[in-house]
Design a protein that fits this description.
The chain is about 35% helix and about 15% strand. It is of the alpha/beta class. It folds into two domains: about 1-180 and about 320-368, Isopropylmalate Dehydrogenase (3-Layer(aba) Sandwich), CATH 3.40.718.10; about 180-320, 3-Layer(aba) Sandwich (Isopropylmalate Dehydrogenase), CATH 3.40.718. The chain binds nicotinamide-adenine-dinucleotide and 4-hydroxy-L-threonine-5-monophosphate.
């Protein structure tokens, strides 16, 4: 057995979107970007659709040639899918020039760029399922997810493990891993923003801002800033929920009744964390210059600010999971699939972050 580091697994997500495009752009041997990581790269996709997409990108003059990859048939339903795959892959004579190993998960219906077909949603969910199985058993060092169209999975009736509506990778991997709580964080050169709540309608957010949710979020951020980013004493700023952090209770009481009492527990324990701050004040240069991570109460309080400082150059990661999961910062970009207009920078950053975290991880034992 060759002593190689464990693979990074990329899920390409929605086949009608740009997930395959960005893998192909990084995979082209002439650029060799996937070889930067000194790890095998495994990719989940429909093999026929990947070939067609590569041909489309050559026709669009984005790729000079088709990158080489090695296809493995994947029996996603096998209980020991991880062992089967490792066996299959180690028995193959894989060309050293292969940019990646493609784990073939066939689509039910033909793939048309930019056109969602919910007949293919099960295949998207299968990619997540196999990614979880391979990560939880330490077969792969990390999962790096490409974009999926949440509405396509919902419209196809795909549910999370607890029977609720599919809402995102974050919730999917949390439930599959049996975690009570994980935290969505997006990170770029300008800032790191973690969220107390993720994919919820705005009207449901106040009820989700409980003391326990805030406490668990802060603890996970502290733990993962230490473990994954090597910051022993992270400096954390926390947004209030209401305008002006409630203006002393005149514009909402969650800060006084729920958020600040929890933050005070951490302050008393010596953690470098603020009380609830007005979000518009927190997201100014002076405050951001003195902070390692921001905790925002909800998706569109934190993410628009962060993405305005580096959309396309940002990584989405899940804190608190038993394995490493990073992701691109963008969606399916249906308008760009097959056109060559999709930037692969965020995928590269997501791979880079996953690779660095895996290199630091104590469980990164040599495998296949
Ligand atoms: N990681 C994920 O799975 C993820 C992340 C965000 C959004 N989504 C999903 O994607 C779908 C579409 O969402 P949206 O339209 O709001 O966002 P989007 O990111 O797909 O598109 C927003 C705009 O940015 C452009 N764009 C996106 N990625 C690009 C890239 N790599 N290079 C160049 N331009 C790019 C698009 O062409 C579009 O104009 C939704 O279903 C949403 O839930 C998924
Ligand atoms: N909020 C995420 C983002 O802007 O990147 C996006 O919805 C994806 O979420 P998941 O990683 O949970 O699918």
């Amino acid at each position: 057995m060759t002593e190689k580091k464990r693979p990074l697994l990329i899920t390409t997500g929605e086949p009608a979107g740009i997930g395959m495009d960005v893998v192909l752009v990084l995979g082209l041997a002439a650029e060799g970007k996937l070889q930067d990581f000194a790890r095998p790269i495994w990719v989940t996709a429909d093999a026929k659709a990947m070939q067609t997409r590569a041909e489309e990108l050559v026709a669009a003059s984005v790729l000079k040639s088709i990158p080489s990859w090695h296809t493995i048939n994947t029996d996603i339903n096998a209980d020991n899918v991880d062992v089967n795959l490792v066996d299959q892959i180690s028995q193959q004579d894989i060309d050293a020039d292969s940019a990646f190993i493609l784990l073939d998960i066939p689509c039910a219906a033909p793939v048309v760029c930019g056109q969602i077909n919910i007949a293919n949603s099960a295949m998207v969910a299968q990619q997540l399922d196999i990614a979880h199985k391979l990560a939880i058993n330490n077969t792969v060092a990390a999962i790096v997810t490409g974009p999926l169209q949440k509405s396509a999975l919902i419209d196809a009736g795909i549910k999370l493990l607890d029977g609720t509506m599919f809402s995102g990778h974050t919730e999917f991997f949390m439930q599959q891993s049996g975690c009570e709580k994980v935290v969505m964080m997006l990170a770029n050169q300008a800032m790191k923003v973690a969220l107390v709540t993720t994919h919820l309608p705005l009207k449901d957010i106040p009820a989700a801002i409980t003391a326990e949710n805030v406490r668990q979020t802060v603890q996970i951020v502290i733990d993962d800033m230490r473990e994954k980013f090597g910051l022993a004493q992270p400096r954390i700023l926390v947004c209030g929920l209401n305008p002006h952090a409630g203006e002393g209770g005149h514009l909402g009481s969650e800060e006084i009744e729920i958020i600040n009492p929890v933050l005070q527990e951490f302050i008393d324990a010596g953690v470098n964390i603020s009380e609830a701050m007005p979000a518009d004040t927190l997201f100014t240069t002076r405050h951001l210059a003195n902070c390692d991570a921001v905790i925002a109460m909800y998706h569109d309080q934190g993410l628009p600010v962060l993405k305005s400082h580096g959309f396309g150059d940002t990584v989405n990661l899940t804190l608190g999971l038993p394995y490493i999961r990073t992701s691109v910062d963008h969606g399916t970009a249906l308008d760009l699939a097959g056109s060559g207009g999709a930037s692969a920078t965020s995928l590269y950053q997501a791979l880079n972050m996953a690779n660095e975290m895996a290199d630091k991880s104590l469980i990164d034992v040599p495998a296949v």
